[in-house]
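Figure S7 source data.
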Amino acid sequence: MLLVCSQKCGGKLFRALFAEVELDSDGEYQSHRIAQPGYVCLNCGAPAVDLGEVPAELEAEALAEAESTVVTADVLCPVCETLVQLDANMECPNCGSPLEVA
Ligand SMILES: [Zn+2]
Ligand SMILES: [Zn+2]
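Tokens for the predicted zinc ion complex:
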């Protein structure tokens, strides 16, 4: 988690809103849950945003992007000995032989 003030006031203290703490009859701490995510900057009172969740989302996006990117590689066709750039077709554009990335 990396909280920052949405107004970028430089405030370093934040208060979690809507946090419910659950206690049992002995007053022992059981768990807490955030009924509704929300943090407020104690410096200026503006809502704070959690930058800690952004990189994870960006990472997932980058990963999905990498998977959809066509991998190309230069290989020498074993049949016609032409240096060809492999794309998703995985076959020699010169002679049509199936190719493998070494
Ligand atoms: Zn602030
Ligand atoms: Zn070939």
